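Researcher: Please translate sequence to structure tokens.
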Amino acid sequence: MLVELSSDQEALRDTTARYLDNEMPVDRVRGLRDDPAGYEPAYWAKGAELGWTSLLVSEEHGGGTVSGFALQDFALVAHEFGAHAAPGPLVPVNVVASALDAVGSPAQRAHIDKLIAGTAIATWCFGEPVPHDRFDEGTLEIRPEGSELVISGVKRPVESAAQADHLLVTGRTADGRSQVLVPADTPGVSIQPLDTVDLTRRFSIVTFTDVRVPLDAAVGDLGAAAGQIERQAQLAILAHNAEAIGAMQRAFGMTKDWAFDRYSFGRPLASYQEIKHRFADLLSWLEASHAINDAAIAAFDAGAPGTAELVSAAKAYVGEQGSELAQDCVQLHGGIGVTFEHDLHLYLRRIILNRTLYGTPAEHRRRVGGLLVDTSRTDRGEQQ
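Model: Translation complete:
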């Protein structure tokens, strides 16, 4: 993560790391493979007490940062989640809490207390199935009918939907993009589990069949949610990047130790020139991933111009090089690296899954190109 952390940030990271070391050792992570939720409620509630769910919420609504830079602080927790392959709906709960804090009504903000306490779960219904699975290409319909909003469409993948009390649903109205907060037990909501490569994270297909909610279920103004949705997506991308980098760091460390401990022809593997060259590549990818994601996080916290381009660049780089690093670590371990019994695959799974969420690297490279073209035209005063 950051090159220099404040004492409060160090304490946050250290507390999270020690808690995960004690409560989620690798054997326990493996044991959650068949757990319906992928985590235990008591574990999540205790993590919430440590601040996992409050960092992106303003002090006015019961949250607060430790440094004044909310996403920087939250990314420290996400990094440790990746480094421990830890379970729990860390990103979706915080995205929803942040959205309700920013634009929710007083009644909606009343749910924040339970999210912060870890006694309730909420998740974000953002992505959609093919052929509408590209980043930012949702087609779910939200239409006003009298005193109600009617929701029709399908969202996938949705993390922890089966455990969620509320669903933050992103869709389209006649006037633009909108969001609605829907209780998960509302008639017409159907949740179907999906298989996933990650042992501790659970995803579902959520189908909305003429789901009816009151008009005041809208989060913010109808048709005016595009800016808030963009902010939520950036937050989710950067948090998942931080998770992936934590997993990359752990995989790299395990592989480096293995290369020094494993001998071949009387020499440690790490002493061979070809292995040294590969480790140099891995370290450069790891350090560059830290750097670009840290820069994007700082831009997000500062509300800097060009944040969208930087976030997509970070997503593209970490997604691409993270998976390359993890696969190389597997190969450098030799035959043991491809066994289920070895711990390395836990981090590979986290990296590979995060690579696919909220747009693939290829989609974000195209997005960077489109954003830069738009910026260039604006700078020259051309017609958009």
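Researcher: Any highlights?
Model: The CA atoms of residues 62 and 113 lie 7 Å apart.
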